Amino acid sequence: MGRPRAFDTDQAVSAAAVVFAAHGYEGTSVDDLVTATGVHRGSLYKVFGSKRSLHLTVLRSHLDHEIHPTAAAISSLTDPQQALAAAIASYDNGPAAGLLLLAAAERAPHDPDVAVLVTEGICALEDALRPTHGDAAPRLASTVLGTRLRLRAQPHTTKEH
Questions:
Q1: How far apart, in Å, are the Cα atoms of 15 and each of 11, 19, 63, 130?
Q2: Deepest of 33, 52, 81, 144, by most Cβ within 10 A of its Cβ?
Q3: Rg (CA), the chain
Q4: Which one is predicted more confidently, 153 or 26?
Q5: pLDDT digits over 20-45, tens only?
Q6: How far apart are the first and last CA of the chain?
Q7: Quick one: 115 exposed, middle or buried, by C-beta within 10 A (0-12, 13-18, 19+)?
């Protein structure tokens, strides 16, 4: 019988999500993940198999714990302006803010598994906006994601444009 796992997988996934969100997939090294998670390289590989597999696990967790609950909260709103404002303020804005956007831009064009997860996240937003915005939901979802991307790209100053 092997030794019991010496780390909490959910905590490791959460820590990895923050690193992937900050630096992207390509900008994150395994050493970065080891440092952020506090999990030895061998243990990371044993549990997740590869950096790519960990990234997919992180995306799945991000969808399940941040994206889908946020989409559910948005879809419960009945006022169209409140729904849109809530989407802009909160969609992909948790501890791993920007993870979905980075995955969409960086990995989805080259990795079909990432593309499926990104599509799921975008469709969740479209579905959340559909009750209040009908056929305009896909266009508004694109606007929300574009706004989130723009907010992410802004320098950390109070200067307005």
A1: 6, 7, 15, 33
A2: 144
A3: 17
A4: 26
A5: 999 999 999 999 999 999 999 999 99
A6: 61
A7: middle
